[in-house]
Amino acid sequence: MDESLFIISAEVSGFLEANKPIVALESTVIAHGLPRPQNLETARRLEQIIREEGSLPATIAILNGKLTVGLSDEQIRFIAENEGIKKVSIRDLPIAVAQKWNGATTVASTSWVANRAAIKVFATGGIGGVHRGLLADVSGDLPALATTSIVVVCSGAKIVLDLPATREWLETHGITVIGYQCDELPGFYARASGLPVDIRVNAPEQVAEIFLAQQSLGVQRALLVTVPVPEEFEVPPADLKSSLDSALAEAEHQGVGGRELTPFLLSRMAQTSEGATLKANLALLENNARVAAAISRALAG
């Protein structure tokens, strides 16, 4: 692999050399996942939380075709405010590099870049998964998790997906799913989904032990650590169903599909729920950053 394609900030490089705790952050949530100005505010807040928790944030993006690890505040603002930022998954990386794109990394591409930069922990909101419907439409996030050794802290798969099919996919492809202080897979805006986790843990040290065992075994899979949305921000199930049904109907009416479907549905749900889902999204992002920082400290320790 050509190391010249990477730009790793001096601060991240120093932490890597000293084996100090680092948490990777994606940039698609900044460019495409949240409305303005919450996107920039949230990006800064997540970095602040991780630093307050004793770890170093490393937001990842593609800038002028370079895989950039550890964005400056100016670079984060550029990603948040520029209309021309492309959404870059793993399949897009060769094009992004060759054509010198400015791009925001997804769960898949962030995991891939972070792993190659030797970062062990990555915090996000919700992963992609199996889409609803008859076609076997599977997010590129899932195959990336099945081939990348990294701890991914999330609140399950995004609620607009087929959660039972996504859970089955994770099981079939050997991805260990941890419930962090919970016994069920979280349902993104909901704290539970009725779907099982492989094991419950209550402390970051337990996650670190499992990940180190996974690495010792040579299992090249992500370790998926699922964390429920804080209770006070959970969206009631009836409200969630009503909002989702309305968003799905609107997407079908407008013919929205493919990689545009999930952000469209999440945006519509934020509108129809009068901001409740957006508040839940922001709360779970912040909470996941805290948990990820604690896990990265446990691994470094």
Put simply, the count of helices is: 12
Over all CA atoms, what is the radius of gyration?
A: 18 Å
The main sheet comes to: 11 strands, mixed
Strand proportion: 5-15%
Q: Could you tell me the mean pLDDT?
A: 93
Structural class of the helices, strands and pairings? Answer: alpha/beta
- Give the helix proportion (percent range): 40-55%
Low-confidence stretches: none
Number of DSSP strands?
11
Which shape, going by the Cα principal axes?
Answer: globular
In whole angstroms, how far apart are the ends? 29 Å
Q: How would you spell out the order of helices and strands?
A: EHEHHEEHEHEHEHEHEEHEHHH
Topology:
Elements: E1 6-8, H1 10-17, E2 22-25, H2 28-33, H3 38-52, E3 56-63, E4 66-69, H4 73-81, E5 86-88, H5 93-98, E6 103-105, H6 107-116, E7 121-123, H7 141-145, E8 151-154, H8 163-172, E9 176-180, E10 199-201, H9 204-217, E11 223-226, H10 237-254, H11 261-272, H12 276-300
Parallel strand pairs: 1-4, 2-3, 2-7, 5-6, 7-8, 8-11, 9-10, 9-11
Antiparallel strand pairs: 3-4, 3-6
Helix pairs in contact: 3-4, 3-12, 9-12, 10-11
